[in-house]
Amino acid sequence: MLRLIILILLIPFAVHAARFSGEGFGADRETARANALSDLASQLSVKVRSEFSLSENSAGKTDGHRRVDAYSDLPVLGAEISYFESKGGFTASAVLNTEKSLPMYEKALNSLADDIRKNLKTVAGTKGEQTVVALETAFAKADNYEKILPVARLLGSEYKKDEDISSAEIAKLLEAVQRTASTFEDAAFLLTRDITQKSIYVFPPSAENSHEITPFAAAVQSVLSGRLASGNSPDAADYHFSGEYTVQGKEIILTYRLVNRWDGTTLYARTARLLPAAFAGLDYKPKTADFDALLYSGLAVSNDFRVDVSTNKGSRNLLFKRAESVEILVKTTAPAYVYVIGHTVKKGDKLSYLLEFQNAQAPGRFIRFINADDANKWVSLGEFSVTAPYGVESLQVIASAKDPSDAVPLVKFDGSSGLYIVNRDPSKAVTSARALVNSGLKKQENAVSEAVLLFTTAE
Questions:
Q1: Cα separation of 235 and 263, whole Å?
Q2: Does residue 53 contact residue 116 with C-beta atoms inside 8 Å?
Q3: What's the whole-number average pLDDT of the chain?
Q4: Which residues, 6+ apart, have CB-to-CB distance to 168 below 8 Å?
Q5: Is beta strand 239-248 parallel, antiparallel or unpaired with respect to 200-202?
Q6: What is the pLDDT of residue 87?
Q7: pLDDT of residue 262
Q8: Which residues are the signal sequence here (predicted)?
Q9: What is the DSSP letter of 298?
Q10: pLDDT at 140 over 90
Q11: pLDDT for res 17
Q12: Element (H, E) at 293
């Protein structure tokens, strides 16, 4: 126990000229700039998911979809960067506005559409490995096309999507001509061949509509890391290699993308079709799908007052091993009070508890204050060691501009675990905490926001 692809629908959003911004702190200007761009990309992703939810609820239907990582997967084009000195370094502001950036996004869409059509036309005149390469090239470009389009829509674009371009359909064509993999090594070769980039962080793949890392996913990450110039931290890498898998009959379709961390561009997009022999004996089915869906759906998020949560290994596709050190980090856009509810969902071990931050009487024991100097910076909530029992853990972070003492859940100390228990039913704990946040948002009496994080621990 640790003590302490999202779907984006490619639909025409109802928006007008817009402006989005992100802030980042660093010891030098380059670090501050990188953090500001990462924050901007994260806010764009949150906004796109929010627009999807509103559009789906009002329209009741959709016209296509893709999975987008909520980290830095959305390309940022034409951001204006400004700097000012702050305590201990520099703070950078990255601003994306319609006037400057929209023409760049629409130009990129037109260029990608032309390239994809040309790639698909050449497929007819190829065979064997040439067909695979042509389809993989089209697949990567279609992935970029489908990431750029929703951002252009947010900026007010009326660009009409080319209905003949679909990364999902190209992936199906690729699966049909790609040779099957009877071992993990075969699959790793198909996914990583000719990749010469250095400084790559390999994420374990996610199961469809899940943030849990299964034993199958952990094994995939291990094999792929052995074939690439990989590192131990996504923040120290220049490229991210991430993917997902789906089950088709008795086979597993594994898809991976190599993305430039600094601009969100997909460089390679590939698939591998694994035969049952390749993953025999490995569990590939998520065990916490219902709780996962509850945790990530209906997040209580404010546009002006935000909180983010991450770890020393990032915030997505997280797997931590026995005795590994996990550092929990939070960032707020303004001074804030923060409290964190941990949720454990494992066989025979389900509970929710409050994280302790200081030696004080409740509820002050569970509240951490982020001051003005630390706003827009990643603040450590502490390092914790992974111990048994292993399984799925999650954190629900609540930030409030005002002292939330009245909103902090009542707890009961459990002597055997040393934890302050909120509820033995994590689903009820999530729902109750979120209801309080949503109530605050509706009343507009206090600025409140929520962020969540799910990770898997294993021996």
A1: 14
A2: no
A3: 87
A4: 66
A5: parallel
A6: 78
A7: 84
A8: 1-17
A9: T
A10: yes
A11: 60
A12: helix 289-296
